[in-house]
Amino acid sequence: MSTNSTEDVVQSPDGEKKEEAFNYDDILEHIGQMGPSQLCVCLLLFIPCVMPGIAVMTSTFTGAIPQYECALKDCENVTGDVWTLFGNSTGVKDTCHRFSANLTDDDQRCRPHYIDDVVDPTLLEPCDSWIYSTDMFETTIISEFDLTCDNEWKVTLASSVYMIGMFVGGLGWGNIADTIGRKLAFTINCFVLAVAMTATAFVPDYVTYCILRFITGVSGMGQFLIVFVWGVEATGKKYRTLIGCLYQAFFSLGSILLGVVAYYVRSWRALHLILGLPMFLPLVFYWLPESTRWLITKKRFDEARKVIEKAAKMNKKCVPEHLLIDQSVKEIDGSGADEDHGPQQSENLIQIFRTRVLCVRIVVMSFAWIAVCMSFFGISFSSGNLSGSFFLNYELLMLVEVPSHFGSIYFMGKIGRRPTLCGGLLISGFACLAGGLVPQDPAGYQIACSLIGKMFATISFDVVFSYTSELFPTNSRSSAVGLCSTAGRIGSILAPIIANMGRTLGPEVPFIIFAVINIIVGVVCLILPETNNLPLPATIEQAKNISANNRGCFRCDKS
Fold first, then answer.
1. Domains, in order of start, for the chain
2. Three-state DSSP state, 286
3. Could you give the CA distance from residue 393 to residue 237 in angstroms, rounded to a whole number?
4. In which element (H, E) is residue 131 found?
5. Per-residue pLDDT reduced to its tens digit, 270-304
């Protein structure tokens, strides 16, 4: 609903702020920053946030390495020291070599080779088939594709391939969403994610598995990125932090639900099928309205007006007419358009890098993303290196994310974005350092340090999404968030590789690496400006002016 005022710019009641036509923050002051219309959009977009949380951690279970031993042939009737599956009573068995099948002595040919045995190497041969324990999983990609011994590195590669997909998806889908809109980009991406996740259940070989995991990574990252920006843009500054953190919480909910389903479904193909089919459901959300902020920045004022008026009607509010006047129409009518309204030239990611203030900002945020993603995913992937129950450790590391999300809401609102990010990285770093240095026995010490590290890594993860979206202008916001998120995938790609060092070099090594990186980056982030309770910048000039709110920390933002 609209009133009949025809002024383009009016004084606000305080006599200071001016309302501009199609300034969405001004419009929200009239229709409400979180009315029924925005609430409907935000609540429905919570559902697709669950899907990427499921997809990213699936390899924790499908790629779990079971106990395995060489399969021996023609040894069923031999008595004596025969192969005892997964036993370890007389030493550490060599799972990659066995005595040669050409030996005539059945007692030697059919007994296991132990690592400590001193034997003639010519009597041994590499295993060509294996028997896998089904105590924890019926099947995994390891047992399906024989990713053992010299091929065990392919398990880590598969996880890194997914993260490389997230790297590509963060940059690609950010630009696509800025170009074609949030709604259309989301619909295409959602379909690709569902197809890739479901089709993985039917792959015939390891290479096809990796290809589909890459595609899943691209679309999984894209889905969360698009939904996050779409939801944050729908609300006013008062609710941005809450909505951003709730999207993160639903991402964590997806990882938690994955652990529950994986506990009951121990076959990796069945797991992928059960998880993939429901991912088609968000396609029905195509009827949701396009992001009003995006429509305005693209100067599609007629469409934006319809969305605003529909939201105002649903919220039972009125929008002054002067806020809904198309500037191009006013120029034709000679009604005195405001030449300074809106960006006069296309403001894209290239111009962000040409602006020194924003260039420094995006570089620092990129390093923050790398540190946060590395520790967030790395600690999760390291759950298999911890003592105790595999499933319990995983669920604890996922469950601790939930209070962390609500903690981040409190801290970001109470002390601001910058202190929360820096503090989260530093505390997470010191917790990981403690986790790497405390003794493994009893196991509770290391698990407790891991949980603290994960808790504050999660808080930092929440901050970087909201913080990045608040530091850059609307026309390049998705691209900036996408670029920083893409940089973060460097940390994500390295996370499973570093976590795997826990199997070969010791469980403390990954935690020490995460600690050093988090502490260094936590200090560097002190140069960033504060954005708490500030309106989202619409232009590069507005984004540059955020630096005026940088108080009490190092300052390198100079115009």
1. 1-31+318-342 (no CATH), 34-63+152-298 (1.20.1250.20), 67-133 (no CATH), 343-559 (1.20.1250.20)
2. helix
3. 37
4. strand 130-132
5. 999 999 999 999 998 888 888 888 888 888 888 88
